[in-house]
Amino acid sequence: MRSWVLAVGMACGLVVAMPTAAVQTDAHRDVVIDAPDALVSLRRGALDLGTVAFAQKAEHNAALQRTIGWSSIVHILTDALAAQKKADRKSGVGIRFVHRLFDARWLTSAEARFELIAVANRIDRAPFAQEGCGETRLIYRLAYTHGALASRLPMTVNAVFRQPGTCFEAWKRWPWDANRHPELLLKPDGAMAPELLTAEHLIAVEVNLQSVRWPSTVQPDLGGHAAYLLRVLHRQPNGTFLPAPMENQPDVERLQRDPLLRTRLLTWLHDATNLQAIDAGTALLPVEFLASAATSVAPRGLARLQNRPFRQVLSATELADLDLRRFPHMQTPNAVVRRLDTLSCTGCHQSNSLAGFHLLGESTQGIAVGRSPFLGHEVAARQADMDRWPEVPPTRRFESADALDLGMPNGPCGLNGQGVPCADLPTTKLRCVQVDDDEMGVCLADLGDIGSVCEAGQLRSSARFERDSIAHKTSLPCPTDAVCNSSRAGFPAGVCVGSCANPPDGTTCTGIPQLTPFNQCLARHKPFADCVTSTAVNVLVRSCSAQTPCRADFVCSRGPQGQGACMPPYFLMELRVDGHPALR
């Protein structure tokens, strides 16, 4: 029984059927433009963040700060960071602090800027649009150049625009082969035509920011810890922006202290129409239940209670009276709660993501595959829908980010007879092992392989996510010629690595910095890249590509010869807030 097969989407929206029209074509329409060459072309087309979101071109963040819109957003973010620092006396900017905070000065620095990393056609979000057909999203990543040093930082800003007109008109506007011909977007009749990127069509500015990171030496059970600040901001009549209710993100604190509000939530959940929408992935939680601020945490995804707001306020026993027999994607009360959590913003951002992000863009410095495993899966499905539409209505199976590579080696499986079992392979016997999540396990061979999990336990997680820990720890075997790099060394759930001699298929040799000398190097204020190079030891790891993603909590980094190598995200400079040059 596939009771854990859940639906989730970027910005908590999913693909659904749309109207048909008598048009037939074999041409290909990319739904996400993120090829590096294509982005260069688009950047030259006046698609900087200042122009599209704040009506003023800005080459860097000091200029962006002179706009009333960005200035108001900076104020909101700096207040949130200041509150976090006040609540945590161990936190501060720089590696000398135990808990390393994001340096808010990057938001207004002339050395920093927001780089366009992708343009996404979200016609699949048509069911959530009050008018028009879905959205066009421009995704920007914070970057800097400081003397001879240059990097990106773990922050994205999305400018979300309504696609006006009918779905057929929105479909026609999107160009063929957009990653090869992005300039078509800039033509007068294209989706990026200036008259479509106006305040009238701007729905929101969305922010995802790594606010703090703890190294694995501070949080060894989890392989480190990071928190991500999430905000959705709406433009006000005076041009400023204010936080808005976040789609399907329940306000846990209010629901826990207000029993009447919680009762209304349970009533809403027992409505047959709402249950149908939850199963279909098109549910919208009423505004009265929603939060206007959220924090997600990594690693360990949905095993951590902070990323599961519905589980914090609902119990399966309260939903035991639901008749779920007709719902293909949630057939137990626990599955209903988990499905709701994957529709929330925090659950969405931490489902098979890249350290809390689904789209980071390729980079010459470290990231070989800029899409998360979940987004890669989702884009393939959306792509197929776009290529068939409008002649054939889109139909596809809804799957959770947790359901990638279902039942395959190192892929997810259901525990305790719930959900998808491990596959019965002719040459490899797999068993479903609880690694941290109490609902979803990992399919592992008896001796594992290069890249496999090698540590397991039970994640003790609570609303005080800073206290999350692993209990009942056990070691899992690696191949005879491999060793386990542990969570304590920064590898969440451990990873089997081997010698670079005679690498088998599916592996690659790459340098991994040794933890103690690496941290000592950073403490001497040496450049991050130099510390990586000077302390690295070559080992055999799992290779990766867009077609063969890494397992949860690992990122496909760019190896010495450009090959993809699975690495913990915080080993990459651009995915951590610490180790960057100090601003004056």
Summed up, what is this model?
By secondary structure, this protein is an alpha+beta fold. It is 21% helix and 23% strand. It has 14 helices and 21 strands.
List keywords for this structure.
584 residues, 3-stranded antiparallel sheet, 21% helix, single chain
Can you describe what's shown?
The chain is an alpha+beta fold and 584 residues long. It is built from 14 helices and 21 strands. It has helices spanning 36-43, 49-54, 61-64, 68-87, 167-173, 252-257, 259-269, 272-280, 309-313, 333-343, 345-349, 373-388, 515-523, 528-535; strands at residues 32-33, 91-92, 99-101, 112-122, 135-146, 149-162, 202-214, 225-235, 241-243, 294-298, 412-414, 430-433, 440-445, 455-460, 469-475, 482-485, 495-498, 507-513, 536-542, 555-558, 564-567. Strands 1, 2, 3, 4, 5, 6, 7, 8, 9 and 10 form a 10-stranded mixed β-sheet that branches. A 3-stranded antiparallel β-sheet has the order 11-13-12, with no helix packed on it. A hairpin with an 8-residue loop joins β14 and β15. α13 (515-523) runs antiparallel to α14 (528-535). The longest helix has 20 residues, at 68-87. The radius of gyration is 23 Å and the shape is globular. 53% of the residues are buried. The model is unreliable at 1-25 and 393-399 (pLDDT under 50).
